[in-house]
Write the structure tokens for this entry.
Amino acid sequence: MVNFFADTSSSIQILPLSRLFLIFLLYSFIGWCCEVLYVGIFFEHKFVNRGFLHGPVCPIYGCGGLVVMMLPQEVKSSWLTLFVSSMVLCSVVEYITSWQMERVFKMKWWDYSDKKFNIKGRVCLLNSTLFGVMGLVVVHFVQPVVNHFVFKLNDTVTQYLAGGLALIFIVDYIVTVHKLVDFSTTMAKLKEFGESLKEQYSEESWFRSSNLTEMFSSIKEYAAVEKNRFSKGLLGRIESFYEHHPDDELFVIRFPKLSSSNYKESLALIKQRVTDSIYEKKAALEQKRKGK
């Protein structure tokens, strides 16, 4: 069994990987709860799963929790040094995560550009300060409870529990990454399709090219007049982009500040689909209410 060093009290102890993983999941769950409550109460006013994964975990908080937990006791003994260390280290974790996901998927999943004292929109002073506060809360209030739960389990139960949860976590992670790749591919296809339409019809007076929605609408409108001007394949492809794709729209719902310099128009179309879907559902509910 792989072991890691961790400062769990006044001395350095060696943690088996199974117990370390359980602690990681607990902090990931706590972080997920904080995200859901924060966004749900102050912004969306409804339940929104703020994690990438389907399960109730935010791994970035799990990583941050482990980083804080493994700080030397000399650092954790002072509230000031603990606050500053948590603030800096967790901000580094958030920055690296944001940068890596932006590099891989060509999209910025969260953006603090509208906040003061931000670094490329990936981290900001407000969030970093909250990380510092959370570090204090974790070490002095949460970590003792987490340690009590994790170390109360015997080795056999710990290994089986960690193994089962690890399997679920890995499957969830693989499924999510697959959907993220599909989402990124959809954005690329929309961009490529829009560029091909501009190249083919940009000289036409009826063609509106300000964004993908305008392009598709102008083609559909003109096709109603000139039925033989466009192939069924082209019109069918446009209709397919109007259809709702829950997996793609889910990422937009979970991350309303999702942005992309590469796929700006593609993302705008997906966001418009989400808005239309919400409007349609509200209209249907209103119609149903009136029918009663």
Remarks:
- Residues 34 and 50 are 10 Å apart (CA to CA).
- The two ends are 63 Å apart (CA to CA).
- Residues 155-201 form the longest helix (47 residues).
- The beta strands are 3-7, 12-16, 118-119, 123-124.
